[in-house]
Amino acid sequence: MTNSRQVRPGQRPEFDEYTLVLRGTLRVEYEGGKLDVDAGQAVHTRPGEWVRYSSPGPEGAEYVAVCLPAFSPDTVHRDGDV
Known about the structure:
Helix content: under 10%
Number of helices: 1
Strand content: over 45%
């Protein structure tokens, strides 16, 4: 995610995702609520967990996501995918 306010589609991936925020704030919505993750913090989402990412602040967010097993369009299951 880059220097703009963005909202990604929700997803229910088949993989673990470890996300480290490098700059700004990343909002992580999940079925039980939401969490704001600031620069220097990380969040872990588990396989099968519904999650949606956005950058609520005007500065956007920069982050690195590591997916295990590796990300695949076939296993991310984004909202609206057929």
